[in-house]
Design a protein that fits this description.
GO molecular function: dTTP diphosphatase activity; UTP diphosphatase activity
Distance between the termini: 15 Å
Strand content: 25-35%
Function: Nucleoside triphosphate pyrophosphatase that hydrolyzes dTTP and UTP. May have a dual role in cell division arrest and in preventing the incorporation of modified nucleotides into cellular nucleic acids.
Cofactor: a divalent metal cation
CATH architecture: Alpha-Beta Complex
Largest sheet: 7 strands, mixed
EC number: 3.6.1.9
Number of helices: 6
Radius of gyration: 17 Å
Bound molecules: thymidine-5'-triphosphate
Order of helices and strands: EHEHEEHEEHEHH
Protein name: dTTP/UTP pyrophosphatase
CATH class: Alpha Beta
């Protein structure tokens, strides 16, 4: 079994890989995401995951896994908010609407590289300004695309999820295992 490397600084992705029972180490890539421009949301997440994976493949040998998550509201791309003000704007925009969460995944094994993405629809109920401010004060927004975490108190904003839940948290496990198996990397569920 080749060594597995998670090319991500996201604590959520780390615990999701642990959930699969895989042994791996974490090496964070130094990709400057703000420099990458792409209008098509799915192309953006695929490209960013590929850049993160290839950056780590330069310094590590083994199976490299990288991902990138964005929120998409009426074709407008929401990444991580730069400050509380932007978080407030994002959550106000998401209020009462359906948005998409897209996560691109790249797996590199030697000379082979696979890139794919998963999309999940998330429906928010109407939010009032007071609870948006309260949520922002928990400090949960700034490291998350769209300024919320479905896995934390942000859960109370979510009326419905259509698609893979883990994709929203940052790594679709069903998609990842499908990709690992395509590369003949066995994931034993025991
Ligand atoms: C929508 C949503 C996003 N997120 C997170 C997943 C990602 O970690 C983050 C989007 O930022 P990313 O740039 O995808 O990832 P990252 O900067 O956290 O880590 P790295 O680039 O090193 O891999 O938003 C949640 O945790 N919950 C949610 O409900």
């Amino acid at each position: 079994m080749k060594k597995i490397i998670l090319a991500s600084g996201s604590p959520r992705r780390k615990s999701l890989l642990e959930q699969l029972g895989l042994k791996f180490k974490v090496v964070v890539s130094d990709v400057d995401e703000s420099k990458v421009k792409e209008v098509d949301p799915k192309e953006l997440v695929k490209r960013l995951s590929y850049l993160k994976a290839t950056a780590v493949a330069k310094v590590e040998e083994g199976v490299i896994i990288a991902a990138d998550t964005i929120v998409c509201l009426n074709n407008k791309i929401l990444e991580k908010p730069k400050d509380d003000k932007e978080a407030f704007e994002m959550l106000s925009d998401l209020s009462g609407r359906t948005h998409q969460v897209l996560t691109g995944i790249t797996v590199i094994k030697g000379e082979e590289a696979l890139t794919d993405y998963e999309k999940t629809d998330v429906i928010f109920r109407d939010l009032d300004k007071r609870e948006i401010r309260e949520y922002i004060s928990t400090g949960a927004c700034l490291d998350k695309a769209g300024a919320y975490g479905i896995q934390d108190q942000g859960a109370v904003f979510v009326k419905k999820v259509d698609g893979c839940f883990y994709n929203v948290v940052g790594l679709s496990l069903v998609k990842l295992v499908e990709m690992l198996r395509l590369l003949d990397i066995e994931v034993a569920l025991n």
